[in-house]
Amino acid sequence: METIRTSATDEWLTPAWLIRRVESVLGQIDGDVAAEPGRSVPARWHLTAEDDALSVASWANPPTASTLGPTDGANDDVSPSRLWMNPPWAKASHFVRRLLREVDAGRVERAVVLLPARLGAESVANLTERGYPRVELTGRLRFEPGRGAAPTARGEAPFASMLIGVGIDADAMHAAFHDVGVVVQAVRPRRGEGIAGG
Questions:
Q1: What is the CA radius of gyration of the chain?
Q2: Could you tell me whether strands 81-85 and 108-116 are parallel, antiparallel, or unpaired per DSSP bridges?
Q3: pLDDT for 137 beyond 60
């Protein structure tokens, strides 16, 4: 089974089938802001733990395709990026807050984010309260071992996982992931309306 490593602090490999579906939703992956040192995800640019994505000035695309990382924010000739984000799960809320700042600033157009399916977690709530659709993956995502693991080891996540589509409509998420999970989209009451309770 072909797999791809995608977490900066975790040596488990995300299944390649999942990355291919993410590519189909995004069109292409411009950046991986939580890349492993091997930069396995097929993105135009990568930020590893060594690059410290949380302290980089901008997650927008660099001005030229030959640039290896995102812009430093000094050049106005940049385009909004399409990101894959599988953050180190212990730092997920920090990565999500940063992602939302980048979206609000117009530097990120779309993103697919892999997170533990913990509905009460700050990282999940911050995304779903904006109405971004999520895919609650069926079963537990099975990762492959990375560097230093026994070749026969297989890593099933100890909890359910979800994908959240930032700037992506629910229909596109459904088209790509309907056979591996359930697509859910939060609906917020309109101003002045409440949710009836019993």
A1: 17
A2: parallel
A3: yes
